[in-house]
Amino acid sequence: MPSIxxxxxxxLFSVNGAAAYWGSSRRRLLLLQRPLFSSLAGGGTGDDVxxxxxxxxxxxxxxxLVLSFLLTKFGIKCAVLEKNVEFTRHPRxxxxxxxxMEIFRKLDGxxxxxERSQPPVDLWRKFVYCTSLxxxxxxxxxxxxxxxxxHFSQHKLVDLxxxxxxxxxxxxxxxxxxGSSTQDLVxxxxxxxxxxxxxxxxxxxxxxxxxxxxxxxxxxERKIHCGLLLGADGARSTVRELAGIHMKGQRDLQKLVSVxxxxxxxxxxxxxxxxxxxxxxxxxxxxxxxxxxDLEHGEFVLQIPFYPPQQMFxxxxxxxxxxxxxxxxxWEPSDVQVLDIKPWVMHAEVAEKYIGCDNRIILxxxxxxxxxxxxxxxxxxxxxxxxxxxxxxxxxxxGVASPSILQTYESERxxxxxxxxxxxxxxxxxxxxxxxALGLDPTVxxxxxxxxxxxxxxxxxxxxxxSVLEGLFSxxxxxxxxxxxxxxxxxxxxxxxxxxxxxxxxxxxxxxxxAEDLGFRYELGALVAEDCAETTYEAEKQKHSKRSREYIPSxxxxxxxxxxxxxALSTSNEGVFSTLDLVNGDKPEFALIIAPLKVSYELxxxxxxxxxxxxxxxxxxxxxxxxxxxxxxxxxxSELAPWTNYVDVEEVPRAPVNSWWEMCQITSKSVIxxxxxxxxxxxxxxxxxxxxxSEVRRVFLKFYV
Length: 705
Hints:
Elements: E1 3-5, E2 11-15, E3 18-22, H1 25-33, E4 52-58, H2 62-73, E5 78-82, E6 95-96, H3 98-105, H4 110-117, E7 127-129, E8 150-151, H5 154-167, E9 171-173, H6 175-178, E10 190-193, E11 196-203, E12 206-215, E13 218-231, H7 238-242, E14 247-262, H8 264-273, E15 278-283, E16 286-294, E17 299-305, H9 318-329, E18 337-351, E19 355-356, E20 361-363, E21 369-370, H10 377-397, H11 405-437, H12 442-455, H13 462-477, H14 490-504, H15 514-517, H16 537-545, E22 565-568, E23 576-578, E24 590-594, H17 598-613, E25 618-624, H18 630-633, H19 635-640, E26 646-651, H20 660-663, E27 670-674, E28 680-685, H21 692-704
Parallel strand pairs: 1-11, 4-5, 4-13, 5-10, 7-15, 9-10, 13-20, 24-25, 25-26
Antiparallel strand pairs: 2-3, 6-8, 11-12, 12-13, 14-17, 14-18, 15-16, 16-17, 18-21, 19-20, 22-23, 22-26, 24-27, 27-28
Helix pairs in contact: 2-5, 2-10, 10-11, 12-13, 17-21
Keywords: FAD, Flavoprotein
GO molecular function: FAD binding; oxidoreductase activity, acting on paired donors, with incorporation or reduction of molecular oxygen, NAD(P)H as one donor, and incorporation of one atom of oxygen
Domain FAD-binding: 53-417
């Protein structure tokens, strides 16, 4: 059983969902007062056989691997524990949204690798329903972002991430590669496969992890001492359980069986006749959602709802799954090969808190939130969690930020997860509106299931219950038979008209949410909140309830920096790049964006001086109007002297917008401080600042020191 203990005689346990200590009050005081990163740079702990690492990440899925890449790139030593001995090949997440692709652009070209490796866009930009080829066409315009969304299976993304990690010195190791001895063990830059985090003990200098592993048929435990434990171990997180952190929200929305199979015959047919990403199939024989992970190679995942205890996961043998595939396809492909069958449960929950155990344990990704897959928010939200956290840990390690910066991770990311949970549930309900319009209301199926459980569950055997349930479901599926669902049948004609109306009005399942994907905004956290904050999460919810999907660029504090193409001035390079590229991707660095105005230069000089004092990497980005001449541009050199960490860029606007400032709905007198994660930390008007030094110190000292 997983366990968690405090140092010395103190022990951590769970009381009403909250962590509490027993032991002497003096001991508790010592635990609270010890430095958070007392040994973050690594090194000994006084225990010669326990290796010490600044950070240990539990979970080697996409979120854990992205986090390990960013931390290593930022100079933080870490190791990854993964309980499985090999990486799963069962496709899970597959849709990568704009914001995540923007992050991947700066992971040594990962976004480009994905674009080159993903299936051709024309094969996956539609959703296909059983009665029509109508579906949501995805938009690939690059006006609002420098990169498009992608359709790329999670297991293939993991492969690419492992290659990126290998390129910066990471190794993937099995228990036998390391051995049982911990003497002089160096674990940094290693992914330890087959290692499960089974116990956690708080110490004076961090956390002592017990990592259990099987070697030669015998279970053993390796002790690892670290400053911080980051739980990226998925929806059934052991780390979350050890920390005593509970989930809040809706549980058991749907139980499903996920069938991973290959069929090149089916892939060729769909590529030719009905290309798409998602296929919602409703017929008298079966109901399911088919995810086409790769039509060219014939790789699919079929999601089938099931209702225990009448229907059990064990009922779905390879043979039964093959039969269901044939029923849903409508003909029998000659080469169906079932590769894997897994059960899973759909939840809509967010952790009550992201940080626990005296700021030593932090939850990231699915360990912190579990969404319905409708909308593809799960992995994307997790990657963005990692992006938000990594630069803050770097500032903490470098002694620039205080431990309180960790709390800004929770105050920024948890509201986003709550919002995305609600949006995913709404999108799931929108997806269910299609079968409901066809006479297959899922709420009716759930009610039938509940009635059988409550009235027959304790009276008749399970097999008989199963026959009753499946008999009733068979009658329900008859609603989509050709006899009923046709234009000549009054009931069928009415249902088809209702279906067309849902599709035409865009009220079915959506996969692109630009307003939420790019337009979300942090209100509280590592930023200077604006006095007249017009956009709150409540306001966003109201817009969201009206199904507003339009992204409106905003330069308000907490927003992602709006994208526009720029061109570097005073260089021989004629290429264009995004405003997002003004923020350094190789190290945590702040960027102050200004227009070439005297009052703004004055504020920029103060920013550079104080940032230098605080050892906070910062550069100035001067945005010039299109067509600016070299003679004017050279003015930045004299205005910012003696500082040289600045760049002059020229706008490359796209009609109907005339300038970046106009697009952001602000004047060129604005100065904007952008964080390392491309979110705006502070905005003001340069001519309103009476004491530049004092204002800059207020901004930096309030949040980063």
